[in-house]
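Tip: read the tokens left to right.
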């Protein structure tokens, strides 16, 4: 599955509604310098969208794989505002760092970074506290208040890989297919066997505004 990925999960029941919102939101991001991240030869920017599973629709975008934190935050905020719901964006860097941003109705309500000083950032205690994740906010915003204590334990467990963390955070929230990004989905020969309800995924191509 690789050591780098970005994905985003929208708390919603209607896959086509999310797909249309994704098309509209990402059409404004898939321009200019971001075009260098288009995979393949002459492919337009593309997004894979899962069916609604346990009340979550997964979004796997080719350009968000660039690992831009600003893009992750912007898309999460825009989708949560447009759909008036919760959006949770995961980013895995190098298999060792997990970040997430939780957006609710257009505002970032919570965030997490498993290794906030990895890139040499000189953060004070207040800044570090904001990156530790808030299990109460995360559980309640995701409609799983009963998961608060379990999430609290996961967020403080040391020495865990990013993929262990993402699995242990996603499971109590009811999120499936959290350990995959656009590139790993497209490259995995056995994805149809490993991905929950893979046959029901939609492909959104922003360049020609098609949904299939």
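Filled-in amino acids:
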């Amino acid at each position: 599955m690789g050591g780098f990925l970005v994905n985003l999960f929208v708390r919603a029941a209607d896959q086509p509604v999310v797909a249309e919102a994704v098309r509209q939101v990402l059409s404004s991001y898939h321009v200019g310098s971001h075009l260098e991240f288009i995979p393949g030869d002459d492919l337009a920017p593309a997004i894979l969208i899962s069916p609604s599973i346990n009340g979550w629709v997964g979004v796997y975008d080719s350009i968000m794989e660039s690992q831009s934190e600003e893009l992750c935050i912007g898309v999460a905020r825009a989708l949560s505002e447009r759909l008036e719901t919760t959006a949770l964006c995961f980013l895995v860097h190098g298999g060792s760092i997990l970040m997430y941003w939780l957006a609710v109705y257009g505002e970032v309500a919570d965030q997490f970074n498993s290794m906030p000083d990895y890139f040499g950032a000189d953060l004070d205690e207040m800044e570090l506290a904001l990156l530790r994740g808030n299990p109460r906010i995360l559980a309640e915003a995701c409609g799983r208040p009963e998961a608060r204590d379990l999430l609290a334990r996961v967020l403080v467990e040391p020495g865990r890989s990013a993929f262990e963390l993402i699995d242990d955070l996603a499971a109590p929230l009811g999120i499936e297919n959290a350990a995959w990004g656009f590139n790993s989905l497209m490259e995995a020969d056995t994805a149809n066997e490993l991905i929950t309800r893979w046959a029901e995924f939609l492909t959104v191509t922003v360049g020609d505004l098609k949904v299939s």
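The first helix runs from residue 15 to 27. The helical segments are 15-27, 69-82, 125-129, 135-141, 148-156, 162-173, 182-187, 191-194.
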